[in-house]
Amino acid sequence: MKEDETYNYKELHKPSSEFVNRADYLEHELSIMSPRRWRPNLPGHDYRFEYEDWVPAVAATIGKIVMVAAVVSTFAAPLGLSNAFVIENVRFEMIIAAVLFVILFSGFLLPSANLAGTHGPLIPLIPLIVASGGHPMALGILIGVFGFALTLFKGGSLLARLTGDGVAGGLLLYLGFVGVTTQIGKLFSWADGFDKGYIAFIVVMFAVIMYAYLEHIGKRWLSIPIGSACAAIIAFVLGAPFEFTTEPSLPNMNPAYWWGETTGWQLGLPSIEQFIAVAPFAVLAVAMWSPDFLGHRIFQQINYPQSARKVIMDIDDTMGVASARQVVGTLLGGGNIASSWGTYLVPAAIAKRPIVGGAVLTGILCVAVAVIGYPIDIAIWPPVLSIALIVGVYLPLLEAGMQMTREGKTSQSAAIVVFSSALVNPVFGWSLTMLLDNIGIIGDKERCSQLSRTDRWIIPAITFAVLVSVMALIGMFPGVPALLDSFRQLA
């Protein structure tokens, strides 16, 4: 970007009073922003804080608490670590993410990169990783190394470019539908646990009506704060149990404590054998990034005006920051597995705000919550958590997927993505359908005819073959034994 292109945000800025409505003002702000890579981006000079920035900041903080707790607790359970360890590591991770990466990179030096969040799709594989002799430090370092390699060769943006609208739309539909049904199921399981299942029904019904009304009046970006607050109030008034248990404190900031043999993770440093054990999982984790990042960027493109392309998330920058965050966080002692921060970017896109402003607020909130402690109890309370994820992430993903698959030529690819993702997982569905879509078996024949031979089938075929091999090694195909187990038996 040339220097004269980053010139005059201050000159082009107009007060909101000069616009007919708030949406026009926000779209104008997006259009005149020109974020500077690897140079300071300052409030007033390159962007402004708006009250809409608090929406993704609150949503991201809730999502961060929940997702990091899910990752760390899934590691901790088979290792025999206590709930107190999980809470302390979550606090540690939130401070690392906020100070070193959210504020420094996305909020200051690299506003083209989405915040480095948590790799939710990998959580179900963590018990298998531990059972295979994996070590959290070995896994985190390899994910970061493989992520840097993909970033160096701009592999993320390449795979995103080769993913057609039908494939991307199908992914959004699948992830949105599975997310909604999963959260509703968890909410009912929670309420049934104390014999008041009707609380879950009432909370979800309120969320449906609230979301529809906010859509009607064009205020959908308010769905997370209103939905979460009302869900908490309704559940508490109807008798759902709740208590504060996490008191104010600071976590241990010493990496030697976390990676000690009798303290923290109580694992010591990893061996070469443990690095080898986690290598297939690390490859799969990084392969999962491309469809995940692509879905987040597409959501921005759908919600932002055409003239706001300079504030769209850069996939390669995001991969680089996620890789750095993974390596640094792991070496310091954290248990998080990094990815693009969906609970931040999706609400930010709905609220028509860029990455940069809300990133600073997210960092501040994460540090405050980690130190105070009590908000962690509220954020992980099932009615607050589930409703925030449903109205803030999964329903918007469903809507975006539907918008992208209106035409027949895209709906074919979308259907195959959903079908194959349900058979194995979204990574398998994405890689298989990208291959079929690009060689012209399904989808937009005109699009595939414009691709080069390398883009049309060589890269998609190699991607599919590598991912299928890795998934076969670790046993991700239903009914098919893991090849690694067979190799161990032969050895």
From TrEMBL:
It comes from the Bacteria. The keyword Metal-binding does not apply. The chain crosses the membrane at residues 54-80, 92-110, 122-150, 171-191, 197-214, 221-242, 355-374, 380-402, 414-436, 456-484. It holds the Pfam family DUF3360. This is DUF3360 family protein. The lineage of its organism: Bacteria, Pseudomonadati, Pseudomonadota, Gammaproteobacteria, Pseudomonadales. InterPro entries: DUF3360. Keywords: Membrane, Transmembrane, Transmembrane helix.
